[in-house]
Amino acid sequence: MKGIVFTEFLELVEEKFGLVMVDTIIEESNLPSNGIYTSVGTYDFAEMLQLLTSLSAHTNISIDDLLEVYADHFFEVIKRNYAFFLEMYTDPIELLASIENHIHKEVIKIYPDAELPTFEVVEKTQDSLVMIYRSSRAMYHFGLGLMNNTFDHFNTTATIVTEILKEDGTEVKFVIQKT
């Protein structure tokens, strides 16, 4: 997992819960990196899971909810540092439908060894989209949060329904309908 995911997560924790919480979750976790991350480095997903688990235990916020809060933060990072991804589109359905074939290809140019989830477009209309998320990491709530932020960015509303296809959350169907 790319370091930017870790550095921005710790930034979020500091903003929302304070520097003491950052220190606490790092100290409580058994991190091979010792909690020292660079945005271009690559780190084991198990470290993120440990940090999330520790933060969840201290805040009584579920990991899924923390991932959606983190998605809100990360979307702001995208808007600030990678606005060109958003500026290429005028419609959220078009943007989401292009994740696999366009956006992820651009991300790989920036982070060549990034391990990205896949998003298979199953069905697409002007007002709806069905996609299958597949990843070795069960972070689909992060993806859900990014999708919700995408609709907010375009001042559009949508209903997004998730259907867990694999019990461990590594394969999920997203059914998206503009409202």
Automatic annotation (TrEMBL):
Residues 2-160 form the Heme NO-binding domain. Pfam families: HNOB (PF07700). This is Guanylate cyclase. The lineage of its organism: Bacteria, Pseudomonadati, Bacteroidota, Flavobacteriia, Flavobacteriales. InterPro entries: H-NOX_domain_sf, Heme_NO-bd, NO_sig/Golgi_transp_ligand-bd. It comes from the Bacteria. GO terms for molecular function: heme binding.
